[in-house]
Amino acid sequence: MTEDIELGIDPYPLNETESRLITLLFNLLKYPSGLTYDSIRLYMKEHYNNDKIDSDQKKLHRDMEELGKLGFPAYVRKEDNTYHVKFQINETKFKFSKEELQAISQSLIHQIPEDKITPDVYSLAQKIFGSEWNLYPEWNLNFTKTLKDFEQKDSETIIETLLFCIKNKIPVRISYERRIGLPESKDLDVIQLIKKNSSDFYLYAYDRTKKDYRNYLIPCIQKIYKLESSFIKDHKPSLSFENLHPLMIPKNPDTKIEVTIQINHMDNWENFISGLTYEKDRNNYVLTIRNLESFYTYLLKHGSYFISLQPSSISKTYLEFLDKIESSHALA
Questions:
Q1: Average pLDDT value for the chain
Q2: CB-based contacts of 196: which residues, under 8 Å, 6+ apart?
Q3: Tens-place pLDDT, residues 276-328
Q4: Cα–Cα dist 86/180, whole Å
Q5: Which is the most buried residue in 4, 136, 279, 287, by most CB within 10 A?
Q6: Exposed (0-12), middle (13-18) or buried (19+): which is 205, by Cβ within 10 Å?
Q7: What DSSP string describes 62-123?
Q8: What's the pLDDT at 279?
Q9: Which of helix, strand or coil describes residue 182?
């Protein structure tokens, strides 16, 4: 025995246009990355089967416009000629009171040993604690020294990575903080280290997103990562700035040195210090450098060129440099 159920609904059959619009909408929703015209004809053979392809395409465009009028923002992306329905997703955001943020922050940061505190932790504390150091007074003891140690180490790593990537033409991603607290991520083809007015140091690079050449203050580069790709194109060094010589990369205080070079090796030495300001008296040279490690690298390779080297403290630190290399190889 069959019992009819009265639903109070009196449905009417869909007409051909309504059926086509609903089918088109469901297909576009099923494929959020978009469908090509040929794909739509394949999935909806019963609706778009006109032998005249142009005629069917005009009908499809009218249907897209009709979906938009019905509240479904349909559009055609011209870059790849694909058809889409735009999703509008309402973002859900958490809101915390000041007290809740402080409680969360303390719970997180109390798990970090004091000797593991980094500039990132420092930044996190400032953002969430609002500079209220009384919430974590243990940091007040040795934090300043710890932070400076990290900053010096990070700065050396950044410069070394830049030099390596410039030499090998490897693009990088940097975190660039020109304004305090507002870091920006930038993908760059790194071209040249440059200096201006003998005090400002820049990275001359090609912005892979904005497609132009810019100068970036090296002290504003907070982090650097190598990208696993190649330069977008060949780049020429900037001619508007003086090239930053490896001996002048600011890794050490200004150090005045005086060297005497064997006469038959003067050309090699002058080629190495080309671009620097120096005093010369026959085969004796006086100059100021800022990167002892770069000088020691040259000395390691061409030590036999040198007749004398002053001041004597340079010879002492050079021996320490050699001991460091020997220790590194021993550990390896």
A1: 78
A2: 202, 241, 242
A3: 889 999 999 999 998 898 899 899 889 999 999 999 999 889 888 888 877 76
A4: 37
A5: 287
A6: buried
A7: HHHHHHHHTT--EEEETTTTEEEE----PPP-----HHHHHHHHHHHHTTS-GGG--HHHHH
A8: 94
A9: coil
